[in-house]
Design a protein that fits this description.
Layout lengths: L1 H32 L24 H26 L5 H9 L11 H8 L2 H14 L5 H25 L6 H33 L15 H6 L5 H4 L11 H9 L17 H32 L1 H6 L2 H37 L17 H5 L4 H17 L4 H24 L5 H7 L1 H15 L1 H31 L3
Helix pairs in contact: 4-7, 5-6, 5-7, 6-7, 7-16, 11-13, 13-19, 15-16, 16-17, 18-19
Length: 480
């Protein structure tokens, strides 16, 4: 009790002393203002000091925007003066269809593979129907599903190595992207149906087909009850095993399958027209920037890389970083905002959470969980949570997610280039340690410095990987 009284008295004396000091300061300032020398000074911090609490830097933001615009215009003029007009939209039609201009072969291997991409989903649907009808056991059916999905993702590789068709880089890259998206969707489709079968098997035979009040698979898992009015119109397993339901999912802007997607009531015409204009304009802008700016910058970086001239490599890297980053930003907006919203509006798909505010990411982990929400949600739902439920730690589950992501990043690069390198794989596997580094910056220096680490990795990491792949491809396929 005595110690407590002494502590309270000490706090009281401190509070009194602070109050007295403030009174003295206020009296001093009042006395200064009454002097005849007309004082004009008072205690103030400079605006750039953190203690000033000044936050309105709109003018500097406008200045930075104008400087970037002027610098961009100068680079455009320099590019036009040096290379001339390189934009030719007709070349992209030739490249995309796989037309081999040198040998005059009217073969379209990329288009054939894209048309064949509709076959594996139908096979998966037939297998699911056979399992639901108890023609196949669960174990046999799931094994067949795994084989079908693995054959589907391997088909571009098989076509490249077993046929004599001429594939070009852009055509086979498009095929690999489509087949990868299809692989992720079919994985989700089969796994979700497996969850529904597992939940349904837990119910007694008397509750299987009694009434519409039987809860869906999610309600069954949670032990909830559902009213008749709520269940009306809700699709339940195995009624979802229809061709229309499957192809709606394949076209929907999501990688995660559900039996009942949230739907909108109508199509907003103005919103739809805006997205169509953005897609058309964005595609032409990306192709023009790639032809006019990106290809010359990558080509000119070959000699310094071959000679291992580190100063010139750095200069080429910094020069390539600008068009690459601009293309990446355009591709992000074109894909995740314009195109996915266009598909969502046409299909009445209500969940438009395609991206978060990744530009404000405090560290690498926040960036990867916000910039590509369809892939992030798929990875959490179908990899992270199932691996964690097996008893593995969160760290091991996260490493597994990055490993799968690294494998498919390498797949999207090595297969079209027809050479196996590990730069994309290593770049993705470097993300976990880089996430730790960015968190250290965030903890010790603040969120702003963590965000700068994120932006630095985006601006410099991608052009470095491009230079390395182009160097290896040139050595393997081009004459000196």
């Amino acid at each position: 009790m005595g110690a407590k009284r002494e502590d309270n008295s000490l706090r009281y004396r401190r509070a009194q002393s602070v109050t007295t000091a403030e009174d003295i300061t206020e009296k001093e300032n009042k006395a200064r203002r009454l002097q005849y020398d007309k004082p004009c000074h008072r205690p103030r911090d400079s605006l750039f000091s953190w203690s000033s609490q000044f936050t309105n830097f709109t003018g500097l933001v406008n200045w930075g925007f104008l400087m970037l615009t002027i610098s961009g215009l100068r680079l455009c003029l320099e590019n036009f003066l040096k290379y001339g007009i390189r934009v030719n939209p007709f070349e992209w039609i030739i490249v995309l269809t796989g037309y081999n201009d040198e040998n005059y072969k009217h073969e379209y291997p990329s288009i054939i593979l894209l048309c064949f991409s509709g076959v594996p989903p139908v096979v998966c649907l037939l297998i699911e129907k056979a399992i639901a009808a108890e023609l196949f056991s669960d174990k046999l059916g799931e094994s067949l599903q795994i084989i079908t999905i693995l054959l589907e993702i391997s088909l571009p590789v098989i076509a490249l190595h077993l046929t004599n068709q001429e594939f070009n880089i852009v055509g086979i890259s498009t095929v690999c992207m489509v087949y990868l998206i299809l692989f992720l969707k079919l994985w989700s489709y089969c796994q979700t149906n497996h969850w529904c079968r597992a939940a349904k098997s837990k119910q007694s035979n008397s509750l299987r087909r009694q009434s519409l009040s039987v809860p869906n698979c999610n309600a069954l898992v949670n032990g909830e009850d559902v009213d008749d009015e709520v269940v009306t119109g809700i699709v339940q397993y195995p009624d979802n095993l229809k061709l229309g339901d499957l192809f709606y999912f394949l076209l929907a802007p999501t990688l995660c399958y559900e039996l009942n997607f949230p739907r909108t009531n109508r199509i907003r015409k103005r919103f739809l027209i805006k997205r169509i204009v953005e897609v058309i304009f964005g595609m032409n802008l990306v192709m023009a920037l790639f032809q006019q700016w990106m290809i010359p910058a990558v080509t000119n970086a070959l000699d310094p890389f071959s000679q291992m001239d580190y100063i010139r490599i750095t200069e080429r890297l910094l020069k390539l970083a600008i068009p690459n980053h601009l293309l990446w930003l355009c591709f992000f907006y074109l894909t995740f905002h314009s195109f996915l919203n266009l598909m969502g509006e046409l299909l009445h798909f209500a969940d438009r959470n395609f991206y978060g505010d990744w530009w404000n990411a405090r560290n690498i982990s926040v960036f990867w969980s916000s910039w590509n929400m369809p892939v992030h949600i798929w990875a959490v739902r179908h990899v992270y949570v199932p691996v964690s439920s097996m008893g593995y730690s969160k760290g091991v589950s996260a490493i597994m997610v990055f490993f799968i992501s690294a494998f498919f990043h390498e797949y999207l690069v090595s297969v079209p280039l027809q050479m196996f390198r590990v730069w994309a794989f290593l770049g993705m596997m470097a993300q976990p340690p880089l996430a730790v580094i960015s968190k250290v910056f965030e903890w010790r220096l603040g969120a702003r410095w963590g965000n700068m680490v994120v932006w630095s990795s985006l601006i410099l990491g991608q052009p470095l990987a491009i230079m390395m792949y182009y160097h290896d491809y040139a050595l393997a396929h081009m004459k000196p």
